[in-house]
Amino acid sequence: MNCDGCGKEETVVHLTKMVDKEVRSLHFCHACAAERGLDPTTFAPSSPLSDFLAQMGGEGPAPAPAVKEVPEACGFCHLTFAHFREVGRLGCPHCYTSFESHLRGLLRRVHGGSQHMGKVYLTPDPTQGERLRRLEALRRKLVRAVEAEDFERAAELRDEIRTLEPVGG
Amino acid sequence: MMDGFPLMPDLGLAWLDGSGEHADIVLSTRVRLARNLQGHAFGPRARVNDREAVFRETQGVLPRIQLLEDAVMQPLGELSPRTRKLLLERRLVSGELVGNGDGPGRGTAVVVSPSHPLNVMVNEEDHLRLQALLSGLRLQEAWGLVDRLDEELGQELPFAYHHEFGFLTSCPTNVGTGLRASVLLHLPGLVLTKEIGKVLEGLTQVGLTFRGLYGEGSEVVGNFFQLSNQTTLGKSEEELVDHLDRLVRQVIQYETQARQVLLRDASQVAEDKIWRAYGLLRFARSLSFEELMNLLSGVRLGASLKLLPGLRVYSLNKIMIFTQAAHLEEAAGKELSPSESDLHRAAFVRRILSTEGAVAPDPQTPNSPGDPAE
């Protein structure tokens, strides 16, 4: 995305504002943002999530001891945790491991837990645990398919369960 | 994959057909899954090469996805602003995908299936947003469809997944299942009896959130409320969908009770207001979209209560979608000023109601309340 100021550099500040009852999005690079007095580190939070994030580590409970282990920035996309707290969006899949301990606390507060209980996605080389959790999820689905009399789907699920089941098990 | 995307006037409109359970109260059911590909920055932080790679990888696997065998993958940048707005008005793409003012970002596309009520947004906030959109209350069916699409796509594309946090998304409020199930409800009874505040407050306490007709940040128009799950992590997809389904059924029951109260305590007033709303729609020469939506709400209530015999939910759904700005311009084949839009809107409504409208009952029915003959 090009800067709305100079048209060249990569943008770091994304501003949404109302102009004549219309929402307009503006994007600026560091230099152009600074010229307009827009400091990317002091933006007022604009969504409930960023409000929530802004409170974290502020007046909220004392940060967990794990804080020290959290890197300044994600090694893959270079998003800093401070920037994440402003925008409320993570930069890439690696951010979840880079900021894992910080995020675990956040996710518990937002969702009431941090352990995924839904579909298990099998990576090309799944661990035994992943395999078993996927089996469990597929069996639950099979029961639902049978209850709903969706026998075509049930047959597909049964075949998939067979391919995952340990031999002789 | 087929070409000729802009030439299909009914594309993606199956959700209008008025089928499905409680279709008079539940306009539509939507289930969407947010998915991202490994190795690329998420939408808001993605560079041009990330966005183009996501586009190419998705395009490359589509021919192998059975559920999308006749689907069209349309880059949004190749469409005229009006066509993009048409897709937005049909609720097939989000405002974010279309781009606010600046036009769509690089690599944004929508995959629309003509034979299944499924579509995929590419390069939105998340790399992929898979969604099923159906008429009426059909949460399990919508989930089943989008689940199958997800299974197929997941075998071909490397999704970003974490052993603890589940499917990874740009916003941590979507992580885990990435699932947002939502139901668009018409609740005039609860609004008129002033019970709606209590009901919505109760729903937010049990993990649901509500929005207006056009999703996040939109206002409530025409007594339409979109209810959806608030959290996405810590529960299975089935639990999230079943929880919403149970609560929506409860809301429908409250709405039905509120309507009975209206009919019991104010039947003449209600019937009069409904027929007046119908009369205005049937004969008005100029209608703003807001006025139309308010009148349509009364008429929809009348159709649901069988006070407007012969009027079908499908006709009302059709009016709602085809009287939006871009649809009117598409039909007129030119740009329309707001006042011209109002004229075209009223003309469209008159045309539909003249052929598909209500059949007025005989006003001299002997047992009519307040009939002077009694």
Short summary of the structure?
By secondary structure, chain A is mainly alpha-helical. In chain A, 42% of the residues lie in helices and 8% in strands. Chain A has helices at 30-35, 48-55, 81-87, 95-98, 100-111, 128-147, 151-164, and strands at 13-19, 22-28.
In terms of per-residue confidence, which ranges of chain B show pLDDT below 50 for 5 or more consecutive residues?
A: 370-374
Oligomer: heterodimer
Instruction: Give the SSE order of chain B as H and E letters.
Output: EHEHHEEEHEEEHHEEHHHHH
Pattern of helices and strands of chain A: EEHHHHHHH
Low-confidence stretches of chain A: 39-46, 57-68
Main sheet of chain A, how many strands, which sense, barrel?
A: 2 strands, antiparallel
Q: Per the principal axes of the C-alpha atoms, what is the gross shape of chain A?
A: elongated
Class derived from helix and strand content of chain B: alpha+beta
Rg of chain B, please?
Answer: 22 Å
Number of strands of chain B: 10
Overall strand count of chain A: 2
Strand residue percentage of chain B: 5-15%
Mean pLDDT of chain A: 75
Strand order of the largest sheet of chain B: 2-3-4-5-1-8-10-9
Order the strands across the largest sheet of chain A as they lie in space.
1-2
**Helix fraction bin of chain A:** 40-55%
